[in-house]
Amino acid sequence: MQISQKQGNKDFAIMLNAYDCPAMLVTPQYQILATNKHYLESYGAIDQSQKAYCYKVSHANDVPCDQAGETCPLSLASASDKKERVLHIHHSPHGKEHIDIEILPILNDKGEVKFFIELLKSVTQANPKIGNNEMVGASPAFNQLVENITRVAPTEASVLLVGETGSGKEIAAAAVHLASNRKEHPMVILECSGLTETLFESELFGHIKGAFTGALYNKQGLVEVAHGGTLFLDEIGDVPYELQIKLLRLIETGTYRPVGSRETKRSDFRLICATNQDIIGMVERGEFRRDLYYRINVFPIHIPSLKERKQDIPLLTKTILQRIDQSGQYSVTDCAISLLKKHDFMGNIRELRNILSRALVLSNTPIIDHHVIKTCLEIDRKISGDSGSTTDLKNNELNYLRRLIDSVDGDKDKAAALAGISTRSLYRKIQ
Ligand SMILES: Nc1ncnc2c1ncn2[C@@H]1O[C@H](COP(=O)(O)OP(=O)(O)OP(=O)(O)O)[C@@H](O)[C@H]1O
Asked: Do 146 and 91 belong to one domain?
């Protein structure tokens, strides 16, 4: 616990220790009067030789956040006289961090705000700097996403993640699960597209031996595995209409029957669904059950496309590069990043990842420059049939694919996956 000697306010400062997270006592003039023991453990002592202001300590700013064009929790709580909550990126001894801030105004008997208690909860599923597995980003669209995830995660509400392909729906589902009270239990994923009725049912509910031809053993369903944890249904819009009623029954009652069994089982899971389709349009066209839509759509979260968060491209590029090449020897030039920023990423972050995987193969040096990125982007356009078919481009593509195959020791399935094309197309192209 740290108390500003000049201000005293010891009683308030002692109270801060009752919070199980870092907390500080702040005046309406932004001055930090005290911090609790969790604050000290997480962020260290504040220099009290001069007045410590929250905007200086947490943001390294010289003016309050609202004067720097950001939301200021203090001014929000002053205006409402109520508890407020915002997501901020703080500077800390560990670098930049997403922090979920809760701020409580303390009023005197005249109803004037005397102090604020600021609670700071670190959001570990998001990272505004290069990170290992978490979602990274620092743009307003990304911060809004993190704020939504942080709010809904501790509740039991069903979440519907809506976003374009490759925009990060699965990683967002994992972030919700990891920030929930169910994080010690599994998150089970079912990819709903392309499943026949029998397969869907037996995957989800399990089956007993002899339930259908080929059912040689009893098989546990994913719903059972998800007990206590989270069930993530990816591409929910692809569940055939006839099967939607079974899903509805499961969600409404928490009960199900393994295929071929008369026994009714029960599972307690939190539901997260994802789609890249216009699911409301599907409801209106009668392709998706309205009752099921209302069940899965308790808390919808929009996953921004890369187009909506172009300013995250430099950070994402560096992070993804580090994740695909753990030797850490590769770097990207500013010119290459500018080129990436101009690209229209229809496949979003997955496309960015593919392009960077290709760049590693094509680059002759550990410095990935704009020439390499340009070639990777041109190959992409060529593969999707969207550009002039110059001989150069064809040769580039051929060279690239050959080097890609060499780099994975001749494994053509792996090379095709890296190039984002089918193995058949790969064979056709290298003939
Ligand atoms: N914010 C992020 N920070 C770092 N990597 C990310 C982020 N968002 C997505 N990715 C990466 O981008 C790739 C695609 O993400 P993900 O699989 O979650 O997308 P998706 O929307 O579920 O895709 P699909 O629509 O095909 O199911 C993954 O490699 C994932 O790790």
From this structure: no
pLDDT for 362-383, tens place per residue? 888 899 999 999 988 887 666 5
Pair 232, 185: CB distance under 8 Å: no
Q: Is the pLDDT score of 421 beyond 50? A: yes
Contact 298, 159 (CB under 8 A): yes
CB 318 near ligand 1, within 6 Å: no
Best of 279, 350, 418 for a ligand 1 pocket test (most atoms within 8 Å of beta carbon): 350
* 103 and 196 both lie in a single domain: no
Q: pLDDT tens for residues 276-304?
A: 999 999 999 999 999 999 999 999 999 99
Same domain, 202 and 155: yes
Rounded to whole angstroms, how far apart are CA atoms 328 and 6? 49
Rounded (5°) CA angle 97-102-103: 120
Query: Is position 128 within any domain?
Result: no
Residues 163 and 249 in one domain: yes
137 in contact with ligand 1, CB cutoff 6 A: yes
Give whole-number Cα distances, 152 to 103, 269, 318, in Å.
Answer: 18, 15, 29
Encoded amino acid at 28, one letter: P
Reported pTM:
0.76
Residue nearest to atom 25 of ligand 1 (CA): 165
* Domain edge (last residue) among 260, 287, 302: 302
Q: Which of 349, 351, 355 to mutate to test the pocket of ligand 1 (most atoms within 8 A of CB)?
A: 349
Total domains present in the chain: 3
Q: Domain of 352: which CATH number?
A: 1.10.8.60
Of the candidates 192, 187, 182, the residue with the CA atom closest to the CA atom of residue 172: 187
ipTM of the complex model = 0.97
Lowest mean pLDDT among 306-315, 369-378, 419-428: 419-428
Enclosing domain of residue 411: 306-430
